Amino acid sequence: MIRRQARLRREYLYRKGLEEQERATAERKAALKTAVEDGKKIPTELKKDAVSLQKQMDMDGAADTTLNSVDDEYLYAGVKDPKLVLTTSRNPSSRLKQFTKEVRLILPNCQRLNRGHFVVKDLVEACKSNDVTDLIILHEHRGVPDGIVICHLPYGPTAYFSLSNVVMRHDIPNVGPVQEIYPHLVFHNFTTKLGKRVESILKHLFPVPKDSSKRVMSFVNSEDYISFRHHMWNGPNSNIELSEVGPRFEMKLYEIKQGTLEQNHVNTEWKLRPFMNTARKRYFIGDEETDS
């Protein structure tokens, strides 16, 4: 089993390397095509390979030959329902335990696991052996939930989010009952390449819902803060009433790694650096929101 996992990991890394090569070639082809169509001078770095690139473009035609690791990481998304495991950091407080129970109600096909004395490596290996698709770990600071880690198995990626403004179900006035049917998802303002990546990580935690489902979950991005809301709706099409069932919180992405949680020496796909905070109107997940 260990040799098989190592072999599969090498094959995955090989496909990732091919993806980087294909992306670089596609960028060179696009630059050459733009220069030819606009009647401009071919860039100096492309002059040596211009003829071979043009032949490849003629053979490719209009087909998109670039690889996409998202298709490989979420190969069976939509075909097979995700299988999730939810746990916490060690020695969780009573408030974090309550928040974990409420997050488990949000995620269908999710099993809550007491952390105990499990180390991360053993936890990930146990999830892989049981065909778990995603491992989710909640963190806290002085009894306040402040972080969530989403690790897609078996090869990654692993996304790290900070949590803020967490409101439990019992703190929401006139909260309605929770139904554990598969929800519809609403994603707003995930327009950049990184935003599409975050959207794919979040949406593949949920199975495909039925059209008759009256449960909806919203992920609304504003200034790189992702606001989560959970509602049930009732009534005819002309008069729909929304009732919030909670919980509610805000997430902020600060890192995406290409490997799994127990791997230390993996490539960092994206990370929020200190110098990025100096540009106040620079957003990475979506466009700037304008008041209308």
What is the strand and helix layout of this fold?
Layout: H1 2-38, H2 50-60, H3 69-73, E1 84-88, H4 94-106, E2 110-112, H5 120-129, E3 134-141, E4 144-152, E5 158-167, E6 184-188, H6 193-203, E7 215-222, E8 225-234, E9 241-244, E10 248-257, E11 268-271
Parallel strand pairs: 1-2, 1-3, 6-7
Antiparallel strand pairs: 3-4, 4-5, 5-10, 7-8, 8-9, 8-10, 10-11
Helix pairs in contact: 1-2
Walkthrough of the structure:
This protein is of the alpha+beta class. Helix content is 30%, strand content 26%. The chain contains six helices and eleven strands. It has helices at residues 2-38, 50-60, 69-73, 94-106, 120-129, 193-203; strands at 84-88, 110-112, 134-141, 144-152, 158-167, 184-188, 215-222, 225-234, 241-244, 248-257, 268-271. Strands 1, 2, 3, 4, 5, 6, 7, 8, 9, 10 and 11 form an eleven-stranded mixed β-sheet that branches. A hairpin with a 2-residue loop joins strand 7 (215-222) and strand 8 (225-234). The longest helix has 37 residues, at 2-38. The radius of gyration is 22 Å and the shape is globular. The model has no long low-confidence stretch (mean pLDDT 86).
